Amino acid sequence: MTAIAELVDLTKTYYCLDCGVCTGSCPVAKVFPDFSPRQIIERSLYELEEPSDETIWNCLTCAQCSVRCPANIDFPEFVRLMRDEAHVLGYNGVPSHNGMLQTIWALQTMDVKQNRTFWIEDGKTADKGDVFYFVGCRPYFDVIFRDIDAGSIKGAQNVLKILNACGVEPVVSDEERCCGHDALWNGNEEKFKQLAQLNLDLIGSSGAKQVVFSCPEGYHTFREYYPKYFGELDFEPIHILDFLADKVNQDMIQFEESQGVVTYHDPCRLGRLTGIYDAPRKLVKAVPGLELVEMPRSRENGVCCGTSGWMNCSSCSKEIQMQRLAEAQNTGADELITACPKCQIHFRCAKDAFDLEIEITDLYDLLADRMKTG
Amino acid sequence: MFNMTHELVKILGIDPARLRLEWISSAEGTRFAEVAREFTEQIRSLGPSPLKQAA
């Protein structure tokens, strides 16, 4: 049996009805008609597809196709497994930023003594405790994307500020590694497993019972993929938006009166892949005076920010981003709120390149700036 | 780009003394040899990189 035939079996792609809903839904296919999930599946069924085929690297793995598929085919997972095969054979996609991000996570599989908590300032943290705040790659992003004013670290500082205001002093560690999301989706399973193991050891030694995430990718990777590879977790992964929505329900945090019209962009890993749609909206609405308007493509239909896993950023990515920002602007909103550090970077990059009006705001910046203290 | 790499190396816990940028023109052979010798000595004195051993 060929590798592709095995993959078809494993992912039950043979249930494909050939309806084309996947390609019709695909944000890449809309701007690059040569890319067709339906045809990739069809070619795979006839064993005509090869892992060397470059088209597999164009998939954003955003799951717009799989949530609509009447045969429940998990196309992103199919693509991920294809990439695993391709990577082993020496084929890779085109890494963005000259592969800098891939180098940074690869180095983290080694015995490095990182200084990734330099940003903490006056935030309160602990060395050991019940709650671990898994910060994610923001400290690196902050440096790499300074030229587009990404302001990535401010989001982490604000998450810590919000946690402190809720009476939580979390463990934050220099020993944290990249969660392995990008290694996983770049087809590098080996590096993913090394990174994941280091993180599991670290969290184990911290004694944490809950791990709080502000990055959708980290949350999704811990929740879905760590158990797949390492069995049941000894701790509970929670997304900070769920945690905060709960605090708002209990009236434990309040926000200052504010004004303006904003719209919210659903990150793929947060929305379609982990089902968190309501918590961010509830939090935005908890700010008195702030009006939330929806874009036509929102929630389950929210479109991807155009690039994923720091690879294959192209004119197609820019086209997707331009359309998304135009859509946000057309709602009459002054700001597009994002809850993912990568969406924020991609949109700020597009805003910069095309000199657009709309502001791109991190949800945690918005909330922390308006949070009532004392 | 060099400043960014310098900052990233620090976050990764790699001694920034291992990184250096010098602009030397093709007419400055002596200068090139001097810098190469000096930097080699500096790296030698720092010892093996912590990255040498995998975790």
Identify the notable features of this structure and list them briefly.
heterodimer; A: 374 residues; alpha/beta; Fumarate Reductase Iron-sulfur Protein, Chain B, domain 2; Rossmann fold; 3 domains; four-stranded parallel β-sheet; three-stranded parallel β-sheet; 7 strands; globular; B: 55 residues; mainly alpha; 51% helix
Describe the structure.
The complex is a heterodimer of chains A (374) and B (55). Chain A has helices spanning 3-11, 21-25, 27-31, 37-45, 64-68, 75-88, 100-107, 138-144, 152-165, 181-185, 189-206, 216-230, 240-249, 278-285, 315-330, 341-354, 363-370, and strands at residues 131-134, 210-213, 236-239, 260-265, 290-293, 335-338, 359-362. With 374 residues, chain A is of the alpha/beta class. In chain A, helix 13 (240-249) packs across helix 14. Chain A is globular and about 65 Å long. Chain B has 55 residues and is mainly alpha-helical. Chain B has a domain at 22-48. The longest helix of chain B has 18 residues, at 29-46. At the A-B interface, helix 8 of A face helix 1 of B.
Class based on secondary structure composition and strand pairing of chain B: mainly alpha
Spatial order of the strands forming the largest sheet of chain A: 5-4-6-7
Residue share in β-strands of chain A: 5-15%
> Which ranges of chain A are low-confidence, i.e. pLDDT below 50, for 5 or more consecutive residues?
none
Tally of alpha and pi helices of chain B:
2
Give me a quick take on this structure.
The complex is a heterodimer of chains A (374) and B (55). With 374 residues, chain A is α/β, with parallel strands linked by helices.
Reconstruct the topology from this structure.
The complex is a heterodimer of chains A (374) and B (55).
Chain A lengths: L2 H9 L9 H5 L1 H5 L5 H9 L18 H5 L6 H14 L11 H8 L23 E4 L3 H7 L7 H14 L15 H5 L3 H18 L3 E4 L2 H15 L5 E4 H10 L10 E6 L12 H8 L4 E4 L21 H16 L4 E4 L2 H14 L4 E4 H8 L4
Parallel strand pairs in A: 1-2, 2-3, 4-5, 4-6, 6-7
Helix pairs in contact in A: 1-6, 8-9, 9-17, 13-14, 15-16
Chain B lengths: L1 H10 L17 H18 L9
